[in-house]
Amino acid sequence: STPSITVFPTHRVAKINRNIYSGFTEHMGRCIYTGLYDPTNPNKDLVTAEGFRKDVLEALAPLNIPVFRYPGGNFCATYHWQDGIGAVENRPSRPELAWGNVETNHFGTDEFMSWCKAANTQPYLCLNFGTGTLDEAMAWVEYCNGKNDTYYANLRRKHGHEEPYNVKYWALGNEMWGPWQINQMTQEAYAERALQWAKALKLLDPTIDLVLCGKEGATSWDYYTLKHCLQPAGLSDLGEERVPLIDMHSIHLYTASEDHYENVTAPLAAERAIEVCSGLIDLAFVENKLLPTQKRPTICFDEWNVWSPPRAPGSKGAEEQYTLSDALAVAVWLNVLVRKAKDVGMACIAQSVNVLSPLMTTEAGLIRQSTWWPYELFCKFMKGHTVAVHVACDSYQGTTKPDWVRALKETPWLDVSATMDDEGWVSVCVVNMHLEKDLETTFGGVGDGKVTVYTVTGSDQKVTNMAGKEEVGLKESQWDPSKDSKFVFPKCSITMLRWKSS
Ligand code: AHR
Q1: SS3 state of residue 337
Q2: Which residues of 44-82 are buried (b: 16+ CB within 10 A; e: fewer)?
């Protein structure tokens, strides 16, 4: 039967928190050094006076990325932030155990804050739960946010930064469940430590948002840590302020496969993970008898992307060369985040420059990978509210789906999400996963006006942009639905349709 898509722009499903388009920059491979920060680049025109890559800042600017997570990732587990402040020549070089590098500490807290200012974005810092202490964590919060006449606030002033940075988002460690993590913890040990740190950090600065380290959303770790740490707000001497200790619960997932259909359906596992995790948050509220008036934590999907280390050269399995198939997978990922906007308070693509990234620097310039285009389109256009959309089409029923997705039995060939922004612009993203069929689709709810069409595709699913030629690009065209109410979604493509609602 003919596929059909009907959009209901006035049927709001959820408000979208723009923080779902956040980024992530880790001290990993070429992400910070030669990615964000490249002071020794022989081409002086490519870098700012502070040593930041101008082309990276210029590429990111129109995307208005709201938040960047830093400094890791796994890197955090041995990072002592005080190594990275003060005169650069006095900063110690240290062995870096997560990625096997030497960390020079030439780029640290103050440099990251300056970069965030240049990129017009907010910082999100991840605390060292591996070798770090609570004292160090509190000192970092005081250094960044302290307004009073206290030691670390004064140290920041001494380094030339009179005004506090007001860092709002802080993570209580990263992937502390992972066997690869320095000082890996049991769920019980982590949860108790996170609770005690949260109490101290919120006493120090009740304005910060704390992010609990979850796992993949639907695991015993997620259940246990939420149950242990979601306490009645105002407990633990936080007095009348009724400040909750935990504001978000972080989950991570990477998907990838050499099989196209597995690759593009795998991100749907995230949709299920978000649903289950949201249920676990509710369950913790019920089991701990928390009042419904208490702020309910959202999900912070602070690492998501397509990644398969064995296939990625450079930076120790992290310099992915993304194909057209991967671009479709990233668009499905973003569709999932938009569809689940009610539950997701923040999401960070992992990562933002050079490692697992849509954007690659070379000594001479910049490459926009295939996955850049869906990321750019979503950051620019898919905002405001998620709105209802009805999709009817045949489904992919192959067997090469990952376990989580196989549970869904069928995956419609067209993966869709729709939004309407505050100015009345409706945007619909349609991924046609099919490798052989263009899908002529009856399209309803579009009104009579002109529709702008953005199409991302290429000659086959394996092409990349890494050889210096743009094999996967973005094309803009117009469609007049009053002349033809059917729209053809090309095989193996991403299409964004955009119009002003009447
Ligand atoms: O983003 C790369 C790495 O993947 C992060 O450092 C870690 O948190 C995850 O395992």
Answers
A1: helix
A2: eebbeeebbbebbeebbeebebbbbbbbbbbbbbbbbbb
**Closest ligand 1 atom, residue 351 Cα:** 1
Residue 356 CA: which ligand 1 atom is closest? 1
Cα angle 496, 499, 502; round to 5: 155
**Active-site residues: which are they?**
175, 303
**74 C-alpha to ligand 1 centroid (Å):** 6
Indicate the residue type of 215. Answer: K
What are the structural domains of the chain? 17-259+268-310+343-353+362-370 (3.20.20.80)
Pocket mutation for ligand 1, best pick of 22, 26, 181 (most atoms within 8 Å of C-beta)? 26
- Dist. CA 345–CA 87, nearest whole Å: 37
Query: Rounded distance, CA 446 to CA 299, Å?
Result: 32
Report the DSSP beta bridge partners of residue 254: 305
CA of residue 308 to ligand 1 center, whole Å: 12
Per-residue tokens: 394? 């045949």
Strands 395-396 and 411-412, by their bridges, are antiparallel
Ligand 1 pocket, CB under 6 A: 26, 72-74, 174-175, 303, 350-351, 356
- Is 191 within 8 Å of 220 (Cβ atoms)? no
What are the pLDDT digits (tens) for 327-384? 999 999 999 999 999 999 999 999 999 999 999 999 889 999 999 999 999 999 999 9
Mutate to test the pocket of ligand 1, among 31, 99, 129, 174 (most ligand atoms within 8 A of CB): 174
Task: Tell how far the Cα of 5 is from the centroid of ligand 1, in angstroms.
Answer: 37
Q: Alpha carbon of 342 to those of 249, 274, 298, 361: distances in Å?
A: 14, 10, 8, 35
Q: Do the Cβ atoms of 13 and 342 come closer than 8 Å?
A: yes
Whole-number Å distance between alpha carbons of 199 and 469? 52
Nearest to 305 by CA among 493, 463, 69: 69
Query: CB atoms < 10 A from the CB of 404, how many?
Result: 20
ipTM surpasses 0.95 = yes
Residue 175 and residue 253 in contact, taking contact as beta carbons nearer than 8 Å: no
The 10s digit of each residue's pLDDT in 252-295 is 999 999 999 989 999 999 999 999 999 999 999 999 999 888 89
Atom of ligand 1 nearest to the CA of 26: 6
